Amino acid sequence: MKVRHLEITTMVGCRVACVYCPQDKISHRYFGADRMMRYDDFKTYIEKIPKRVVVHFTGFAEPFLNPRCMDMIEYAARRGHPIYISTTLAGMTREDIRRLSKLAYYEFQIHLPSAEKAMNLAINDKYFSLLSDLVTAGIITDFHFHGNEVHPVVGAWLRQHAADFAQFQIQDRAGNLNTEKVKARMSTPVTTAAKPNGKLRCDRIYQNVLLPNGDVVLCCMDWSAEHVLGNLKRDRFEDLYRSETFRRVLRGLRKPGDDILCRTCTVAQSGAVRDRLKTAIHNVPGIGPLAAQTLSQLRQVTRPLGRFVFHASRASR
Ligand code: SF4
Ligand code: SF4
Q1: Closest ligand to 9 CA?
Q2: Whole-number Å distance between alpha carbons of 162 and 297
Q3: pLDDT above 70 coverage of the chain, percent
Q4: How far is the CA of 169 from the centre of ligand 2 (A)?
Q5: What average pLDDT does range 51-57 have in this prediction?
């Protein structure tokens, strides 16, 4: 059975305002009366979600900017959901970390500032004290930053504490990002999708994003709320996948002419059988990447042989 995920946007209007994040899009398209998710609403939503669904505290905002974020995390964990957190530490307190350290995580990611001041985050004693508490708690699964280089002082601190960190490319978020604004502030190139053709696939059709008003949009690329699957104040969780919007996305993945967000997205993968098989082999734990590489080398060796056999059979006629 496919692992399903739901990302919780605990508030709309993230003040961390990373240059590479289309905050303007969601702020303009959001019609809810409350921009901060109410705790009681959160409980209503989560009660509708099967316990096997991985609950992410990330979505379209820094989760800890909602003062009830920690209560929400504990509530979801008590229900038995695997918990995924991605945070910049903005809005987090030392008391939050004390409570966080008592839970287990599917993933716990730290989104680091980059060298190019692309994020509205104070890098001061308070920041390092929180980071230090989290490292001591032993709950972080990965650190990452976006762009060419991590913030130099943060990078030095992490190296000193023997913590590895990954570099993420900046993507145009399926056409939602103002790339000119990024180019003016950062030297990093922005990755855009060459309109993918043919059949497509993407597991993130089952990693939807919940907004404070209960609306659920397709995925973390849907900053303009183009594909609203339903609303968890009104609908059941299963209804999201029976909605006309979800069916339109499924049809659009099969039909290149259909205008769905995935046709402008860098994350979309080829849905051709051969490519799907390649991905499946690559994902076999341990031996997958090597097996995929060997098969691809074998194909390159046997391809000229196939051409020779074909030409030889034509010549003999
Ligand atoms: S990338 Fe995350 S932290 Fe930065 S503005 Fe967007 S939602 Fe906020
Ligand atoms: S292809 Fe892009 S837009 Fe479509 S579901 Fe995947 S991440 Fe979202």
Answers
A1: 1
A2: 37
A3: 85
A4: 16
A5: 98
Cβ neighbors of 180 (< 8 A, separation 6 or more) are: none
Short-list 73, 78, 54, 77, CA closest to 2: 54
Tokens 């104040």 sit at which residue?
Answer: 233
The runs of H, that is alpha helices, within 47-124 are 69-79, 94-100
Q: Is 163 in the pocket of ligand 1 (CB under 6 A)?
A: no
Q: What angle do CA 64, 113, 123 make, to 5 degrees?
A: 80
How many C-beta atoms lie closer than 10 Å to residue 288's C-beta? 14
Cβ atoms 229, 219 nearer than 8 A = no
pLDDT band at 316 (very low <50, low <70, confident <90, very high): very low
Distance separating alpha carbons of residues 116 and 226, to the nearest angstrom? 31
pLDDT digits 0-9 by tens, 110-136:
999 999 889 999 999 999 999 999 999
pLDDT of residue 272 exceeding 90: no
Which residues are registered as beta bridge partners of 54? 5
Q: How far is the CA of 233 from the centre of ligand 1 (A)?
A: 25
Look up residue 47 and give its two tokens: 């009660």
- pLDDT digits over 60-87, tens only? 999 999 999 999 999 999 999 999 999 9
